[in-house]
Amino acid sequence: MQLIPGGIFTMGSDNHYPEEAPARKVKVSSFWLDTHPVTNAEFAAFVADTGYVTTAETAPKLEDYPDADPSLLRPASSLFVPPQQPVPLHNPFAWWRLEAGASWKHPYGPDSDIEGLADHPVVHVSHEDASQYAEWAGKRLPTEAEWERAARGGLEGTAYAWGEELTPGGKMLANFWQGSFPWQNSLEDGYLRTSPIGTYPANPFGLYDMIGNVWEWTSDWYAEGAAVATGPGCCVPENPRGGERDRSYENGTTGFPRKVLKGGSHLCAENYCRRYRPASRYPQTIDTSTSHIGFRCARDA
To answer: Is 256:46 a contact under the CB 8 Å cutoff?
Structure first.
């Protein structure tokens, strides 16, 4: 872990997606953060020690999904499957498939395994899975403000974690999608899916893969407007937290509440989901696991 110095910084952005606005000053206390996302090897050690069974390995209960076809309530997780031709970008089901048997041990489907992927970020983990690992490790999940403070590495107000250019001098500094998402990847960074931790340079705080590779869970409930997360008052909010659980549901619907994801993933592209930035944030239901969501842990200083 690395000690992240506390201080005041500009959180959010007024220049990108609306849910990131407004850019505002917040203050966080010093805290410790894992230098990299939790890897398959680290998660395997947790499972071996505890016998833990992840959400993706557990059949959903009918009472939690009353409108579902009972035949579909089997262990599964969301898997990215690239189409063979261009597809409308408003329909994510054109590249996402609920894959029976996909899990952290079988990241590309039931016939795959994690051999050769020990140093890749663990994926197909729900928020509960991440929280259980953090508790076992004597840690916790970071807040959204902590995560963004760490990702910025002390750089104030820049678009990217390393400055204002996505690929300065043509240099790849994170694992994201190059080409026309979701069907054509030029693989300029060499990776179609996840990459080993430490493939790209650490940021000034000594942290790897804060941007791209996998989205990362935080402990904050999602609020539709980032301004909600700042709290009331005229002063700089200190250690701000997100919204309320009961208000984190999508458009007031029932189902599952949502937590904040940060950092983007290997599926973020210039033509789609340009969220490979510290200010980016995305809501994800807590029951969901996918092939591009992982996590890292924090600890109080």
So the answer is: no
Phi/psi region, residue 93 (left: phi>0; alpha: psi -120 to 50; beta: rest), is alpha
Res. 105: pLDDT tops 60 = yes
- Report the first-to-last Cα separation within the chain, whole angstroms: 11
Compute how many other C-beta atoms are within 10 angstroms of the C-beta atom of residue 10: 16
88: Cβ–Cβ under 8 A, 6 or more apart, which residues?
Answer: 94
Q: Shortest CA distance to 199 belongs to which of 212, 214, 209? A: 209
- What does the angle CA 81 – CA 85 – CA 91 come to, to the nearest 5 degrees? 60
Provide the pLDDT for residue 123: 98
**Residue 289: how many other CB atoms lie within 10 Å:** 24
> What pTM value is reported for the model?
0.95
pLDDT surpasses 80 at 231? no
Q: 134 φ, ψ to 5°?
A: -60, -40
Q: In this predicted structure, what is the pLDDT of residue 252?
A: 62
3-state secondary structure at position 27: strand
Specify the length of the chain in residues. Answer: 301
pLDDT for residue 228 is more than 70: no
The verdict on whether omega for the bond into residue 88 sits within 30 degrees of 0, i.e. cis, is no
pLDDT score, position 251: 79
